[in-house]
Amino acid sequence: MDHLDGLRTRLVVDGGRRLEGSVEVPGAKNAALPIMAAAILAEGEVVLHAVPRITDVDVMASILESLGARVREQPGGTLVIDTSSIASHAAPYALVSKLNASFDVAGPLLARFGRAQVPQPGGCVLGPRAVDLHLKGFEALGAAVTLEHGSIIASAESLTGADITLDRPSVGATENIMLAATRAKGTTTIRNAAREPEVCDLAEFVNAMGGRVRGHGSSTITIEGVRKLRGVEYTIIPDRLMAGTYLLAGAITGGDVTVKGLDPAFLTALTDALSASGAQVTASGVSVRVQGNAARKPVDIVTSPFPGFPTDLQPQFVAYLSLAHGTSTVEETIFDARFVYVSELARMGADIRVAGRTAIVTGVERLKDAVVEAPDIRAGGALVLAALAAEGTTQIGGLEFIDRGYEFFEEQLATLGASIARASAVEPVMPRQDLGETIRMPRIVTPFRAS
Ligand code: EPZ
User: Fold this and answer.
1) Which pTM was predicted?
2) pLDDT tens digits, residue range 388-422?
3) Is 132's C-beta closer than 6 angstroms to any atom of ligand 1?
4) C or N: which end of the chain has fewer Cβ atoms within 10 Å?
5) In a domain, 223, yes or no
6) Which domain holds residue 252?
7) CA–CA separation, 313 vs 259, rounded Å?
8) Are 279 and 258 in contact (CB under 8 A)?
């Protein structure tokens, strides 16, 4: 196990502190990634503001550069993307395999070059990450789609608008088909389209470039093909999933946290569930405040496409429910395997039983410190929340996942009063009997303390 060599970097959290204060919400990862891919459509320079500084953005930038684009980072989360010199339509496996959203380059490449060659995407292990709906959409627009040596190849002399009904409101398929249709001849209709705010942000970006997308935010989106799309300056919407994670940090520690800079309508499903659990929620203008409540009531949730309860806040909410006074059920309807993290919460004393796509969460009196490992981005957020509420000092590995999706995570939490820092394990301490290993307890070497 690599932590035996003491070289592992982990988040070290001293739990049991109430979080209080307010945080600004960064730009949304799940809007920035498809918008960066959509920059391929603009013959010219695109300037994006409020791009979160996370490794998923770095990977997407590298994919664009591998295609021939120039990507420059400016201070304060601004990216300048010049795609005028793009000459390739083939995205490299080494990069695509790191990021599920990288498949979003397929639609823009197909629209601009009449050809896209993109390996089957990788990303979080949440269950199969199929792209069949994307491909059906491309074929409906007139593209021929084949699978060769692990890469999907879509090609077309020209694309023609079509009436497409999705079997399920897939975020990625809605986005990819929208982008492919932007320069098709005639009008495309996407029925049973995803309604997520990030899909709407992508549509607004396309329209800012001169596109004609209508109906986004509803289940039926129409795209009128245009001949040309121009470079544009655009600001990414705030990240509702980061915002929800900070609000849950306040709730799980019995604290009082306000997130600023986002439309409360982005988080209604979460704030309704928090209110049902007994937390006090105050929404106004562009901020949401949550005051935690020690007498936390159990709440049953079912994840579903927007505006339902977001699957990307399911792990974090389960961590919160693990300290409720009673039993909750959480049904995951979007992904096949999104409860992998439960075993890590159990190591901290949570009482959660998983049966298929449902978790039965029986609240416990307290969570206790442990050495845990994040298996994916949102599970990383859940483990941090559990550590903030737990007694003792918890170590969280898998920072490569946390860094994929959470900008300045420990810094923001520290400004709310958390004791949290990155540390590399440097000294042997007590052996862990159950696994016969010597766990090297980290000495804080790079403490972050709010100034
Ligand atoms: C987007 O993924 C998000 N990622 C995910 O966030 C989010 O969980 C998901 O939407 C659902 O809201 C980005 O936006 C970058 P889907 P995406 O297409 O587009 C199945 C995070 O942590 N499906 O709506 O991949 C698929 O297997 C990530 O930020 C098909 O069967 O989601 C999955 O079970 C995790 N065929 C379900 O639909 C298809 O062609 C949801 O997929 C496409 C999808």
Assistant:
1) 0.93
2) 999 999 999 999 999 999 999 999 999 999 999 99
3) yes
4) C
5) yes
6) 3-25+238-439
7) 16
8) no
